[in-house]
Amino acid sequence: MWKFLTFRLLVGGFVTGYLPYSILSSHPEPALTLLSILTITAVFLIAAGVYVYLRCIWDFTFGGEGDNPTMLVARGTYKFVRNPMYASLVLILLGESLLFKSWRLLGYAAAIWFGIHLLVILYEEQALVKKFGPSYAQYCKEVPRWIPRVHRLAS
Questions:
Q1: How far apart are CA 46 and CA 99, in angstroms?
Q2: N or C: which end of the chain has fewer CB within 10 A?
């Protein structure tokens, strides 16, 4: 449990903290504009992403499932989107790119999304179909991969 928790927190911090800091410090951008609509949107995206990421870690760590669940996890944030942990990382990076008005961070966010989609999610989905069978196939029909459906949020 603690190994999973530590690993996820380190990965999230590295992907959304250390690497963006490295990108920004090697290519300084203009100073932040305080209280613009862009800044407010950026802070909202970052806060939402951090909340969802921490909620996903909580659901897996303390929900009894751990890193290798024996049952399909379709509760919490997983009722709205199949990959909330990955989506939250991308959301944080999009917020950071807006906050710092950085095209480099936006490109980094796109690269992370593309890499996760091609290298992780497509592989994981095949493995989950083998592991959980028809229940995972039905879950895929009902729950979108990246962006939650508006009508599911209202219900």
A1: 9
A2: C
